[in-house]
Design brief:
2 domains, globular, Oxidized Rhodanese, domain 1, five-stranded parallel sheet, two-stranded antiparallel sheet, 9 helices, alpha/beta
């Protein structure tokens, strides 16, 4: 499976996206859920669902890999939206589904309050020492401010790492983190990863839309012997630095 490129401005994609929005509206209504207060989370997931419907004929969850089994596409954990794990476990227990689009009204309210506070907390960046760079670049999970500081430090030659975007080509085109070095789409992950030629002991930081695909990829890489993998916890939607479009 090579990298699949879908033109998001094509009439076909726009029509599919419109159907998908109606579909997610209906899911919310059916289960008594609400959308995430972060608009860009919902838009990203809806675009991913529309893309998967066009590519595979099913609305596979965009936060999980789709693999081929007996010549047919299959989602890891059988995640077809609205997926069973979200209905049975994630939303009842945590208030939000893995992709972040469907929430309980209580979770959404709490998130709105948090978002208001967050702006005050993160008045950011400060220069890092070499020692702080080493600690940060070796963290399993990074927040947006930490990545901003690391990218600044890398510009100054204080630290080395490779920043890998694991979203799809279409999402990359819409906007990616300035300083991202490689695009390795989850849909063609194993084939495209080979081409990065990254070493098992290289410092690597991965990111996606909301942090779930990249967390999944980080685990796969660790299982394959990569020792220094960091994940941007909440993805590009919560990244405060510069986005290149």
């Amino acid at each position: 499976m090579s990298m699949i490129k879908i033109d998001m401005n094509s009439p076909e994609f726009q029509a599919e996206l419109e159907k998908t929005i109606k579909f997610t509206d209906k899911v919310n209504k059916q289960f008594g859920w609400v959308y995430n207060p972060q608009e860009e989370v919902n838009e990203g997931v809806q675009m991913g669902l529309a893309r998967n419907k066009m590519m595979y004929g099913k609305r596979f969850c965009p936060c999980f890999m789709v693999v081929e089994e007996n010549g047919k596409p299959k989602s890891v954990d059988d995640r077809i939206c609205p997926c069973k794990p979200a209905i049975e476990k994630e939303i009842p227990e945590g208030g939000v589904c893995h992709c972040g689009i469907f929430c309980t009204p209580e979770f959404a309210e709490k998130k709105r309050v948090e978002l208001g506070m967050e702006e005050v907390v993160h008045n950011h960046s400060r220069g890092l020492t070499k020692e702080e760079c080493e600690i940060l670049v070796n963290k399993d999970e990074l927040d947006g401010d930490e990545l901003v500081s690391l990218l600044e430090a890398r510009e100054l030659g204080m630290v080395k790492f490779t920043l890998v975007d694991v979203r799809e080509y279409m999402e990359w085109q819409m906007g990616h983190i300035k300083g991202a070095d490689k695009l390795v789409p989850t849909s063609s992950f194993f084939q495209t990863w080979e081409e990065t030629k990254l070493g098992k002991d290289d410092n690597i930081i991965v990111y996606c839309h909301v942090g779930s695909r990249s967390a999944h990829v980080a685990r796969i890489l660790q299982d394959n012997g990569y020792t220094k993998i960091g994940n941007l916890t909440n993805g590009i939607v919560a990244y405060p630095g510069e986005i290149e479009r």
